Every structure is written in structure tokens, then in C-alpha cells.
Amino acid sequence: MEDRKTLIKQFSHTDLDGVGSALLLQAILQEQKGYVAENYLPVGYSEPGADGTIDKHVLNFIKTNDAAITELYITDICPSDEVIDQLATYCTENKITWHIFDHHITSVHVNQNYPENASIIVADETTNLKHSATSVLFKVLVGKMPTELFQDKLWQRLANVADIIRCYDCWDWQLNPNAAYKEAAAEFNNLFYFYSWEKRIELMGSIMATGLTLLSDYSEIIAALKEKEADYVRSKTLKAQFGVLAGKTFAYTFGEQYTSVLGNALARLEHPETKKEVDFSLVLNGKGVSLRTNNDDIDLSLLAARYFNGGGHKRASGGAFAEIQYFISDSENPDNALRLFLDITR
Asked: Three-state secondary structure along 256-292?
């Protein structure tokens, strides 16, 4: 019987680590197994959570796929338990090998449910570094953390790309004084989001192929984006408001750009009543909400899961509001009560 041609389907997150891990996986498999572009179907880039698209995308794949898939990989994102169960059944029935590579603490339990198919690791036991999806790939498939391969002749180019992404995604660029990449990690992320979606994929592919030296070609854009970011964050923090949730103080504002940097800046603000640094921050964007903290005693992944139908990491998480209500005031009748103008419910 003739062997089946290798055909791979991938799903991944849409952010820097998601796109990076999807393309890094291809680069590693090319080096280890000789896989080339024709071995891959287009990556299904998705958003996490009940309000995201990962469950819908995986279920649609199960329902409509007619390609002879041999391998399936999910990086930097995890479907719900119910959808993973359906995917496992589908892959078994169709003789597809599958694996999830992730680093979010809210998904660690999947390791117990599918020990042969899940590598969801929050931190590395050897280096004590926090994981991103890119570093999980290196640890599982290559056997070492990217930082341990900076001088390795075979892996140094990809290892450095993987770690600059890890430094940004895990916030090591600000929180870890020994991080290999600091400002450069944030600059890479800003450059990534500067471009349209298609251009982001192209940029990441070029970085994987060439290495981080390629970033020097974008130095003028990076410098302009850094100045723009500083102005944006400064203006938004001046408009911050404050509140209390579950006995914890927070600062919040609306923001569509530089969400992580803005959230981290808000988390350093002083609450006007307690005169102490707030416990965490919220950046609101439509129904979406991003949470950040500098407080080691707070686990934002639990807050995000409890109140915002989301999840993530201890210091950085996200979710969505169940309902948003917009009120309007009547300038000609300022004494009248605010009137509900628009009500959005999940």
C-alpha cells in the first residue's frame, strides 16, 4: 500500500506569538523532516475563548474537510474541551496525528486529558523562564530552550527569533532584567502590528528565513512607531478612570492600539483613594478587555475566567464583557436622566 503524502493543517492565534509559532513550526519541521510548502494547507488563524473563533474554525474543519490530512497542529491557542474531544475522535477515525503546543495556564489541564497530544507548558523547569508558544516548540521538538541555542550553528537563527517573541509575549522584556531582548522585543511587536494582516505574515516569514538582522531594514519605521506609541500611551493614561472589582483596585481606559504597553502603564498608576499602585488594569476595546498587573499576588487568569469569559496568564489575560450599554445625554435638557442608546449583549 502506497504511503500517504504528508499534508498538514495548522491552527494558531493571530498575535505575534501565534503567527510566530505557526511559521516556526514549519521551519523546525523543514529542518527535521524536510517538509516544504506543498506539505501545508493554509494556517487557520483564530481568536481564543468562547467569544473567539478557534472553536468555530476547528468544528468547521471537522465538518467540511475533504483533504487527506496526515498531521494537525495547534499553536498558542486551545479550543474548548468539548471541541478538543471532537477533534481527537475525528483525528483517530481519519488516522491523523495531532498535537497542541500552548503556554496558557488556563489550558494546562488538557495535558492530563490528552498526554500524548498536548504540550501546554507555562514555565521551563531548567531555565525558570516563562514560556511562549515559540519556546514550547523549541523545548518539545528540539529539546532545549531558545536561549540555550543562541550559539548553536544549526538553530541559532530560529532560536533568537523564537526568544525575542517569547520576551515580548511573556513580558520578560520589562519584568526580567536578564531578558535577552528588551526594547527590541516591543519594537518587533509594534512593527508587526503596523502592517496589514497579509503583510504581517510576510514579515514574520522573512524574519524566520533571514533572522533578526532583517529588522535593521525597518529602523526608520521602528523609530517613528516608538514615538507614536509613547504619545498614545501618555494621552490614554491621562484619561484613566478607577474602580474596584473583587476587592481589587484597577485603572481603566479605552484603547485600540498598543494594548499591552498601555495596560502595563495603567497598572503602575496610583489609585486616588488608596494612594497606592492599583492592583491591575483594564484596557477596553468594544466588548473586548485586556488585563495587566504588576502584582505577583494577583492571578489575572482567574479574574478573566470568572468575570470576562476569558483567560490567559497570571500577569496578562483577556476576555470580553457580557454586555455593553451606551448612554446619551440631551444637551438641550441637561437635567434629564441619561438615556440608553445602544445595548449590546453577548
From this structure: CCCHHHHHHHHCCCECCCCCCECCEEEEEECCEEEEE
Angle formed at CA 130 by CA 152 and CA 242, multiple of 5 degrees: 145
**pLDDT tens digits for range 293-322:** 999 899 999 999 888 888 888 888 988 887
Side by side, which strands form the sheet with 288-292? 241-245, 248-254, 280-285, 288-292, 316-320, 311-312
Q: Which helix (H) or strand (E) holds 91?
A: helix 81-93
Q: CATH for 239-326?
A: 3.10.310.30
Write out pLDDT tens, residues 57-107.
999 999 999 999 999 999 999 999 999 999 999 999 999 999 999 999 989
Q: Which element (helix H / strand E) includes 221?
A: helix 219-238
Q: Which helix (H) or strand (E) holds 214?
A: none
Residues paired with 262 in a beta bridge: none
What fold characterizes domain 8-221?
Answer: inorganic pyrophosphatase (n-terminal core) (3.90.1640)
Read off the DSSP letter of residue 70.
Answer: -
The answer to whether 102 and 134 are in contact (CB under 8 A) is no
**From CA 158, how far away is CA 210, in angstroms rounded?**
9
Whole-prediction pTM = 0.82
Would you list the DSSP string of 92-118? HHTT-EEEEEE--GGGTTHHHH-TTTE
Residue 8 C-beta-side C-alpha neighbours within 13 Å: 20
